[in-house]
Amino acid sequence: MLAMLWKRRVIIYIIIIFLAIPLHAIKAPTGSADSPDTTYIDEGKTVTTEAYEDNGYNSDDGNSGGSEGTGYTDEIENNEDAEYTGGTEDNGGIDEAENVEDVEGTKEAENIEKEDIQVMEEPEENKEYEDTETVDEQTLGSDITLSAEAIDSPLTQNNIHGAMLRLTLTNEEFVPNASLNSFILNNAPPVLTVVGFNRNNSYRNMGFLELAFTGEIDKHYLDFTITVLKEATRGSLDLNSNAIPIFYLVDGNINIYATTNPSLLYEKNLQGSVINLTINEGFFQSTLNSYDIQLNNAPHGVSIGTVVRDTPTQARAILSFNNDNYSLDGDVFFSVTVLSSGIKSASSATSNSLMIKATPKIDGHGSYTSLEKSYPTYIQVVGYSSANNQLQIYFDLLTTRFVDSTQTVTFHYFAEVYNQQQQLIGNVGDYKNTEIAISSSGDNIVQGITKAINLNQPLSEEYRVVITVKSVLINSS
Fold first, then answer.
1. pLDDT in tens, 132-182
2. In 175-256, where does DSSP find H-type helix?
C-alpha cells in the first residue's frame, strides 16, 4: 500500500515539474503529422512548412543557413526585401514575426498587414538620383528616328544659303552644345556646309541646323539627307533623315503643264473630274485654295471645287459642274491659270489648252424604240475606241407609270448599233436575253447607265444607236 502511494506521489511530482517548464524552452518541430500545415510569416504572406522543405530550408542536420543549433532558417533566400527574424539559443529556436504575438500552434496568422513586416530602407547617402538632363532608358531604346524639313520649303539655289532645317528626334534627345562635325550632309551640292546648330531647350528632341552655300547649282538634288552622329545625341546610334529635295531653277520662267483625269472630258463627266497641274521653274505655295486657280473659257457652270497640293511642284484641281442640262454646240478649249497667290515668289502662270468634247446627241424617233409608257432618255455617245472597235454609251431609263415610295422599277432592255447601211454591227443584250436595270425605291428612273458595246467592224461616219425597253416591272420593295 505504501509502495503504491509512493509511486503516485512520484508521478504527481513529475507532472508538476513538466508543467513548470516554459513552453518556449521546448524546441518547435519543423513539422509533424499532427500539424503538417504549420505556417511562418514572410512579409505578410503565409508559407507552409512543406514549402520550406521543398526549397531545402529544413534539413536533417537542423542547420540550413540559420543560427547554429537553432534548426531554422534566419533569412529567406530570393526575397531580398523582407526582414526576417531568426531564432536564437535564448528562445529555443522559435522564429518570431515582429508585432505578431502568438503564432505557436496556429495554421494561419490572421489580419497581418504588410506594414507589420518592416522592410529596411536604403540609407539616404546610398540613394542614386537621376540627372535632370537624362532620359528614361526604356524610352530611348525603341523606334528612334530622325526627321528633317526646311523652314522655307522648297530649297533652291535662291534660298539655300542661310536656310534653316528643323531636325526632330523621336525617342531621343540632342545633347547641349553639339559639335557641328556631328552633322553630315549627304548627296549635297558642293560647298554646302553646316554653320550652326541650336537645340530647343524646351523640347530637347528638336534642333535647328543652319546651312551656308557659296557655289552654284546646275541640277536637282532630290536625295539630299542629313546624318546625325551619335555624339550629338544621348543615345548610341547614328541617325539618317528623310530626303529634303533641292531644286534647280534654270531661268526663272515658270510654266504650268495640265492634264485631265479622265483624259477625255465630256459635259456628262465634268463633275468630279481632275486637272493635274505640274509647275516647272517654280513652286506652289504650301497651301492652295480654289481662288488661287482660274479657269479660262470654261463652259457655263464649270468651276474649281477643291485644290490639293501633293508636292511643291504638283497639284490637283477638282472640277465642279452644276448645270446638267447644259449642252455644248461644239468642242470647247480652255486653260488653267495659277495666280500669283498660289506660286512662291512669282507672277501668275497659265497652262496649255485642255478640251471638253461635245457629245453627239441621238435624237428623234429613229434613235430609240419604246414599248408602252417606258423609254430611254438623255442618250449620249461618250467615247469610241478605234483600237478595239468599242463604242461607249451613256443613258437613262424612264417610265411615266406611277411609282410610290415603296416600289422599285425593273427595266428589261437591250441596245444595238447599226452602220449607215442599217446593218447590225454590235449590241448589248437582245430581245431574248435582255439587260436589267433597277431603280431606287420611289424612283421612276434609272440614271447614268454606262455600256460598252463591242463592234464587229470599225464605226462608220454615220451610225445609229437603238435602245429598246422590252418590259417594265413595278414591284414593292
1. 444 444 444 468 999 999 988 788 888 899 999 999 999 999 999 999 999
2. none
Q: How far apart are CA 361 and CA 405, in angstroms?
A: 32
| Rounded Cα gap, residues 346 and 256, in angstroms | 13
DSSP, residue by residue, 401-452: S---TTEEEEEEEEEEEEETT--EEEEES-SSS-EEEEPPTT-SEEEEEEEE
- Sign of the CA dihedral running 87, 90, 96, 102: positive
Lowest mean pLDDT among 45-54, 116-125, 295-304, 341-350: 45-54
| 428 grid coordinates | 448589248
- Per-residue b or e along 30-39, where b marks 16 or more CB atoms closer than 10 Å to that residue's CB: bbeeeeeebb
> What is the distance between the alpha carbons of residues 301 and 144, in angstroms, rounded to a whole number?
52
Output phi, psi for 176, to 5 deg: -70, 145
pLDDT at residue 325, rounded to an integer: 54
Residue 410, Cβ neighbours under 10 Å: how many?
14
CA nearest 241: which of 315, 347, 165? 165
The count of other CB atoms within 10 Å of the CB of residue 397 is: 24
Q: Which CATH class is domain 365-476?
A: mainly beta
Report how far residue 82's alpha carbon sits from residue 377's, in angstroms, rounded to the nearest whole number: 90
Grid coordinates representing 338 are 495659277
What is the CATH code for 142-247? 2.60.40
* Closest alpha carbon to 106 in 40, 193, 21, 7: 40
First to last CA, the chain: 119
**Three-point CA angle 418, 420, 425, nearest 5°:** 30
Q: In the chain, where are the structural domains located?
A: 27-129, 142-247, 273-356, 365-476
Distance of CA 415 to the CA centre of its chain: 48
For residue 288, how many other CB atoms are within 10 A of its CB?
21
pLDDT 10s digits, 323-356: 655 667 778 899 999 998 998 866 788 888 898 8
- Whether 142-247 and 365-476 share one fold: the answer is yes
Identify which of 181, 173, 288, 188 has the alpha carbon closest to the alpha carbon of residue 233. 173
Distance CA 438, CA 458 (A): 32
pTM: 0.36
Cell of 176: 547641349
CATH code for 273-356? 2.60.40
